[in-house]
Amino acid sequence: YLLGPLYTYIYGRYPSPIFDGFIDPFFLLTLPMAFFFRKQLPRLGLMGIYLVVYYLVWMKTAAVTRYLMPILPMLCLLSIRVVNVMADVSGERWRRAIAVGLLGSIAFFSLWNMADFYVVNKHYWSNSVPLFLRLVDRQEYLKYTFAGPTLEAERVINAYEEGLSSEISEAPTGKIFMILASQSYYLSRPVYSDTLHSNLALLQSIEMKGEDPIEWLVRNGYRYIIFDIDRVRWYASSAEAPSSFRPEEKYLERLRDRVLFFNERIRPYLTEIGRAGKMIVFTPNTEAKGDR
After folding, report:
1. What is the DSSP code string of 1-39?
2. Contact of 15 with 59, CB cutoff 8 Å
3. Mind listing the pLDDT tens digit for each residue in 219-231?
4. Which of 155, 184, 227, 250 could make a disulfide contact with 193, Cβ separation 3.0–4.6 Å?
5. pTM of the entire structure?
């Protein structure tokens, strides 16, 4: 718990099963300084209660960096107040040195984080500038983002439907059901996203209730399934992080069991219509479904 804020920066990456992002360490540096100047910060107690309670709830629920956003305004105010107190108690002699040190720290962390982001995500930089200058169109740019494989999967679906439209008078358009995938924000058709990676458990529960998952999908208008086959390996890639922040082995076992359930009980009754990187695109096979 004490080293958690530090770990969010050291081990935080995007995309990653560990924190899935990182927070600027400048805010973390002001926390111990605030305790040192607590006598000059009359409302520090109330701010501390808010920060501690929110942090504990965050640690016990979903330790994802973006869920820390609600406390960043408070940390900003606290950091500004701490710097002002430092300047007040230091006197005129050290005020300029504190200002230079503060600007230097902000510049250092900004440049350091930009360099770190560039090393990890070179494709963003190499494509963002051409997009800004309108040298490439939006669709071309999106191909290189994390939504790229999902968009390519939708193009596979569109091509499949165009092929059907040449055989029948009207192509069977339908919704998308995602499994272990959630980059659905640029898709042009209705989609049931798997943000919490719980859709396999949903299909399992439907079968446990005595209902056919394939029939349930078709009845609710889901004509296509996009499956991210790389997600289990992605979860297992967190071995370098502290043990308290890794996905629990029990969770990984349940995830593997659900993927096994999909391969044994669902996939035989689906038809693969194409692949887009790590995404497999299926459509329910109504003929095979009748043999269940």
Report:
1. --SHHHHHHHT--SS-SSTTS---HHHHHHHHHHHHTGG
2. no
3. 999 999 999 988 7
4. 184
5. 0.66
